[in-house]
Amino acid sequence: MIGIEDVRAAAARLEGIAHRTPAVTSRTLDELAGAERVFLKAENLQRVGAFKFRGAYNAISLLPEAAGAQGVATVSSGNHAQAVALASQLLGTRATILMPHDAPAAKRAATEGYGAEVIGFDRYSVARDELLAELVAERGLTPIHPYDNEDVMAGQGTAALELLEQSGGLDVLLVPVGGGGLLAGCSTAAEGVRVVGVEPEAGDDFVRSLAAGERVRIPVPRTIADGQQIDIPGERTFPVVRERAAAVVTVTDEEIVAAMRWAFERVKLVLEPSGACALAALLAGRVDVAEQRVGVVLSGGNVSAERFAQLCG
Amino acid sequence: MIGIEDVRAAAARLEGIAHRTPAVTSRTLDELAGAERVFLKAENLQRVGAFKFRGAYNAISLLPEAAGAQGVATVSSGNHAQAVALASQLLGTRATILMPHDAPAAKRAATEGYGAEVIGFDRYSVARDELLAELVAERGLTPIHPYDNEDVMAGQGTAALELLEQSGGLDVLLVPVGGGGLLAGCSTAAEGVRVVGVEPEAGDDFVRSLAAGERVRIPVPRTIADGQQIDIPGERTFPVVRERAAAVVTVTDEEIVAAMRWAFERVKLVLEPSGACALAALLAGRVDVAEQRVGVVLSGGNVSAERFAQLCG
Known about the structure:
Two copies of one chain form a homodimer. Chain A has helices spanning 4-14, 27-33, 52-61, 65-70, 79-91, 105-113, 128-139, 150-167, 181-189, 205-212, 237-244, 253-266, 277-283, 305-312, and strands spanning 23-24, 37-42, 72-75, 95-100, 117-121, 142-143, 172-176, 194-200, 247-251, 293-298. Chain A has 313 residues and is of the alpha/beta class. Chain A has a six-stranded mixed beta sheet, with helices on both faces. In chain A, strands 5-4-3-6 form a four-stranded parallel beta sheet, with helices on both faces.
């Protein structure tokens, strides 16, 4: 299991490469939440617009030279695709990304813009894991899993490490959870802090799995939080979360929209639905933060103006 | 006429009180603009969501004790109202704000939330300057003009001073211009830098006035950039701008909307129309920045999600 020293080593690798994103504060938010002070870790301002760059860069930088020379691959239509593409470009590795044919054109263009090769597939007729396995075997590539990879988890944890430094210490840290990479990394990094994961109500696989004491699979969740449409906790992330996170709570899509609107109007930050999930839990009073120093990871901001207008207009 | 030492003194007064807003960079933007490097000064992340806090705080902090004890007043339905209200609250002064009856309820509530007294008036039947003069005379208040005040100008200039430090030096600085307070302050602060003002095409009173060599009044401009609906340059700002700014250029409302959308999608920042004006000039190629180090002041982000959706959705 990864330890805090892995997160610290990842931080050293990311120094000067990942953005040290700001810790945004708002007296209005402190009062709304009833907290001593709230620190919003603005990972929407991270490179590629999401925390995913941290983990992807850390993992790819740790590949043996021969593997790096062969190239990496992943399946993603989201932020991890762009993260792997940019990290590969910076590290001189070739990235191949499997992306569903119906992924937004802007995401495909952005990924190709970082020099990655994008291969489309039909998400309804093909099993993505098998497709990736075939590609990897055929071309000798190294797969970079979006969360179930210890180097990825350690990289994501650097967001918490930075926020601890920027805030001068926290009592509670709220973190969005999809596959669990960010939560595993942050709960490892934030020793002695009550770390709480937040997932959409419809995608409560971590809540159910923690209650059951083992990984539980749910139907693929219907939620606006597309970064969290995952049906089962990661094999490697789950034990870390179970041991180190204090709890996982849920929020509704309506609460997520309210948090997106609040961030837009009050702190002038663009958040995608998954990126607003932890803030939604704070605003909805899902976690007791009375008189506490609270960190909240705003994990990403990749939403088009058009989609934002549909959701929040 | 104010000098750089006034801006430096203002910066010392604002230290630890105004936010030192981030200088955001984007390699995509550097390429789009053809610049060596672009630094976006994110004053939308300033207290009250706009640079206006700098000038209001500096001016109110410089009032003689007796004037401060009596209180201050201004006419504004915009960012200056909230800036005067918050600065007064922090400095222990009472603020009275004249605001049109049809100002957005959220702006009135925010201003009152900072402890100011808001007095409504009918913007179609009353001359606002006379109304303010009456109020000030009756109650013994000190008026804080939104731009035509040297202490306000010096305060606004601190945004440029900070950006010069954060960027390590600039060749060009693009600054939105309404009444000219921000441009006067920034062109004073940024000695040796080519400082260019940007105003909406419909509100080109500075362009015309500079061409005429004297202040020219235009019809009140129809533009989405509500922070720049000013019909004549300030009496005190105009000479400073004429002497120190290199030029003033214009952008269309469509170019402003495109810049708002770009900032939203690419750097995850919320900008109000006036706040996007200088960025619009850069994106539209209005200023030659080839191979240069460019600063752009993103002056404010006070736009509702609903209004953003109307404009950009």
